[in-house]
Amino acid sequence: MEQRKLRLNEFKELYKALKTKVVWLDYLLFSFVYWLEEKVINVRVKNEVDEAIEEYETLHEVPMPDMVSPVYTEKHSETSVNLPEMRLTAPWVVKK
User: Fold this and answer.
1) How far apart are CA 88 and CA 74, in angstroms?
2) Into how many domains does the chain fold?
3) Domain span at residue 19?
């Protein structure tokens, strides 16, 4: 069975300060401090990740292209089938 340990010094000190000589009470107290430490770590990690994502997005802003419709063109074909040639071109493609 995995033995649970407190990871942050502030919670280790808190547990030592609140510790009593009653075994069952110490176990309940340790469980509460361990649970609280887990919540604090999760909140800190979430905040750090959110801040890093926000900082990355502000530094690497990519302009979104204008949302415009594609260009449809139809040209009469001179082939033996004699069907029109249809093209669908993105508006940002430059013709040469």
Assistant:
1) 9
2) 1
3) 9-59
Q: How many residues does the chain have?
A: 96
C-alpha to C-alpha distance for 29 and 20, rounded to whole angstroms? 9
For residue 15, tell me if it sits in a domain: yes
Given a contact cutoff of 8 angstroms between Cβ atoms, the answer to whether 74 and 85 are in contact is: yes
Confidence band for 1, pLDDT divided at 50, 70 and 90: low
- What span, in angstroms and rounded, lies between the C-alpha atoms of 83 and 86? 9
Residue 83 has pLDDT above 90, yes or no: no
For residues 28 and 26, give the distance between their C-alpha atoms in angstroms, rounded to a whole number: 5
- 11 Cβ contact partners less than 8 Å away, ≥ 6 residues apart: 33, 34, 36, 37, 40
Burial per residue of 13-45, b for 16 or more beta-carbon CB atoms within 10 angstroms, e otherwise: ebbeeeeeeeeeeeeebbeebeeebeeeeeeee
